[in-house]
Amino acid sequence: MIRVLIADDHHVVRRGLLFFLKTQKDMDVIGEATNGQEAVDMTASLRPDIVLMDLVMPIMDGIQATKKIKEQHPQTEVLMLTSFSDRDHVIPAIEAGAAGYQLKDIEPDDLVESIRKLMRGENTLHPRATSELMKVREPQIEPPHKLYPLTPREQDVLSELTKGKSNREIASSLFVTEKTVKTHISNIFSKLHVQDRTQAALYAVKHGLTEPSGL
Q: Where 4-aspartylphosphate occurs, residue numbers (predicted)?
């Protein structure tokens, strides 16, 4: 079972999410938080797999809560579920540690698939969030081999990862094993000083390392 914590200050939103998620045979809603501080505290006590996190909440906002959760419980993934798609919200959320970013107009079936993707270690970004990331590309000041110490094969893996591909799909595209892909991804995280696939994809887009074609 995927253990889900809902964090949103609107009762109607929480009720709607609870009603739908409880119909999923592989998901269990283990708690509801009404603000960011409650989300942090409940994560510590309940240890959810996924936190569905609103951005704008009282006491502590979603970005601050996400940062605290990822610092204290790095194994818990945070999926932002918000109405804001502009870069001023998308980028700080990902940099705080959110592994996914979806908007509240998402179809219910797409939402549960996003939750499952996070559990599989895959990217899950709303198309409008992806569009915002495409606008933040910065020109390279130094040659790639100086600024970004990735091997050619690691750059290939990063390029495929930024397209939102799973490890299996990357392995198939590059004609290597999934174990090899996992090793390359681990090296990429270490060299770029990022925590997950979404942050690696954001880093690549921001610095012009690869084309952001379908995060």
A: 54
Most confident of 80-84, 117-121, 160-164: 80-84
Asked whether residue 83 falls in the same domain as residue 113, the answer is yes
Lowest mean pLDDT among 132-146, 160-174, 178-192: 132-146
To the nearest whole number, what is the mean pLDDT of the chain?
A: 86
Same domain, yes or no: 85 and 158? no
Write the single-letter amino acid at 163. Answer: K
pTM here is 0.69
Q: What is the DSSP letter of 143?
A: -
Domains identified in the chain, total number: 2
Residues 6+ positions from 69 with CB-CB distance below 8 Å: 39, 40, 43, 51, 76, 78, 97
How many whole angstroms separate alpha carbon 65 and alpha carbon 20?
24
Q: Cα separation of 48 and 152, whole Å?
A: 37
CA distance 99 to 120: 11
Its domain, for residue 151, covers: 144-206
